[in-house]
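My current task is to audit a protein record that another person submitted. I need someone to confirm that the token line plausibly describes how this chain folds. Take the sequence as given and treat only the tokens as open to question. This is what I was given:
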Amino acid sequence: MGLQQLQTAGLPDTTRATDVEHLLCWALERSSTWLRTWPEHELSATEQQRLDSALQRRAGGEPVAHITGHRGFWSLDLETDASTLIPRPDTETLVEAVLEEVPARPLTLTDLGTGTGAIALALARERPQWTVQGTDRSLAAVQLATRNARRNELTRVQFLCSDWCAALAPHSQDVLVSNPPYIRADDPHLQQGDLRFEPASALVAEEDGLADLKRIAQQGRAVLRAGGWLFLEHGYDQADDVALLLIDAGYEQLQRRRDLGGHVRVTWGRRPQRITVNPA
């Protein structure tokens, strides 16, 4: 019944079965493993009502993560709400790039525009020797990320309100990471799928989606230590533009990483080890 309901609503074939499973697990308050172990379980009246309500909301286009109030990311279970972006699998590409590129020695890392805290918390879980924090200009996002730190027992990760690097001291960071807004204001995808229910401020940037990426690259130079890394997630067709932004801002040793769909999704560079000062 659930699949038919979502099919009638025009939801993608690729996600319908997964959506129904997630909503059924939520209605039963059970895991997917339990669901597969006990497929003959008959829903109680209360469980059926919860499932019917959830399916109706999903058929109306509401994201599963908003209905259930949580989303898995990396090895984390994150609380989600309408105040910020829903964590997506493509962003795990950014986490992978940082873990592979940056040495596993003690250092300081900040996730800019942290939202749910997904990136900061994933990196903190994998690198307990790192000092990790996240910033966001939205107080609601900072509060959500803080709850997620407690939820995943990563309370050493701190979150604070800041407009990108504004609250960071000069030359205080070894690594900056960010998944900022990078969608063009006229992108038709904004009127489709889950994006319709997510805050435009976390999705859309001026200058053809490049304004915040440019701002982070420029501000990052001031707060990174010599040799520090800046990792940026960006749109599938923005790799060359982002590379130029990083070069113009003075970063070196640029590298790229592709996402699950084969698109270049993450670009990063390093602040020079030596800062050359032009004579007056």
Observations:
- The chain has two domains: 2-61, 81-270.
- The beta strands are 70-73, 76-79, 108-112, 131-136, 158-161, 173-178, 224-233, 252-258, 264-270.
- The radius of gyration is 20 Å.
- The first strand starts at residue 70 and ends at 73.
